[in-house]
Amino acid sequence: MTKRRSGDTTPADSGAPFDAAERALADALVEILMPKLRAILAAEVAARARVQSSDTDTVLTTRELLKRIPLNRSTIWRMVREGRFPAPIQLTAARIGWRWSTVAAWLAERERHRVAARSYFGKRQ
What is the three-class DSSP state of 50? Predict the structure, then answer.
């Protein structure tokens, strides 16, 4: 088995370097395929952006909310009572939910304005 130099040889088992015709063919293929690959990638990125933007209108149940926000149920309800977390919306007489867009806005606000560290035994962490 011969050692390959980057970009100069065909697979290592043949050991023969590319000739000029093969190099030209490879360059022509790259020139033809790259714009198509870029277009496919751009379409995929746009599709994912549409899925993510439609996710912001989702209404979450309490269980779904607790999976996304790492807080205890009682902590969330205490924060709702204190006005520090978005209140749920009443969906039916027995069902509530949180609009993900309002929860995501709350998270973004938390990122912009960090919460002060908790004091333990009179010392700041």
Answer: helix
